[in-house]
Design goal:
SoxZ_dom; Immunoglobulin-like; single chain; three-stranded antiparallel sheet; five-stranded mixed sheet; Ig-like_fold
Length: 108
Amino acid sequence: MARALIHMPATAKRGEIIEIRALIGHPMETGYRVGADGKLLARDIIRKFVCRYNGEQVFGAELHQAISANPYIAFFTVATESGTLEFTWEGDNGFAHSEKANLTVSAS
């Protein structure tokens, strides 16, 4: 089971630019390393990250073997309305993990 950490404000003013930071615990094995038995270790990486704000994608990234273990992603979006941000990671071997966070937007 992966562990994700999301850091973002719980509240914002309409039109405010907010920073969102997401980190997920994952070993990210490239598939190029050799194990103790001399055989290649199987590739196991997160390949895709998507953030949706009230169902609309506001950020997405394709990840490759060069990404470090426990990938950290930071990005900005504009607070338009109160709602839910959903963060989804997908990877090799059927890996999938989602987290949700609420954002309350005020008029002023």
